[in-house]
Amino acid sequence: MVFRVVRRLALLLPLTLALAACDMSMAHLAGRATDEWTHTYPLTSGGELRIVNTNGTIEVEAADGPEVVVRAEKIARAATDTGAQELLPRITIKEEVSPERVFIQTGRMDGFMIGASFEVRYHVRAPKNVFVNVANTNGRIALTGLGGKVFARTTNGAVTAKGLTGGVEARSTNGMVNIDFASVGKDPISAKTTNGGVVISLPENAKADLSVSWTNGGVNVSPDLKVEVTEKSRRRFEGRMNGGGTPIDLQTTNGGIRVRTRQTAEDPNTEPGTPTLEPRLKPERERGQSH
Is residue 159 part of a domain? Predict the structure, then answer.
């Protein structure tokens, strides 16, 4: 037994030292340099806006008009301001533009980067009804007021949205997914994460078929929502909201899932917490009247 403990400590020690060294090196990045540019692209109705980022944030907000306006902040950090300024030109942004599609991607850093870091922060205004397809590796995604289909995925970070009206597919590996809907249409809604919570805010009159599953966590459905429970087990919940309608699929491995009314929704950046309320079954008399 002692041998096993010692062996585990021996295996963990190099990783611990490496992480400590990484934290120390990041703490000494006192130098900083920034650059910014704004580009405007015309995009046809129903076209696609695609953004792929590596480190930083992606914010997309609905706007009037047929143009996409992108403001990108490049940020370089190093031990000194001079070192950061030298790193800045190596942060590149690639563009592929047509009337039907705007594709913007943070370029891969050439060469070695030791004792330095960089990020790009995208602030975007886009026509309300375009297809928004965004991906990030290290950083959050925030969406506001969009009416077209949305595909958003990040590895290390949260996906948050407010005032959406179209179909959504949101994914995170290490982070929460929090989506607020102004209305619900026919297109499916999917929100999934591995390590984090899932929060969906819906209007009270929304018609939806809920499918919720989790491994470690639970579910909390607001009692203000009219949900007829059709299946409930230790790791799964299904129900029809206002008689059923839009498919809504919510999944997490480690975290809680919360379905709540939009009127009582909190800040979309808040964590869902540990669910403590069970969805209430409708009385048999009410369930019989709903058919």
Answer: yes
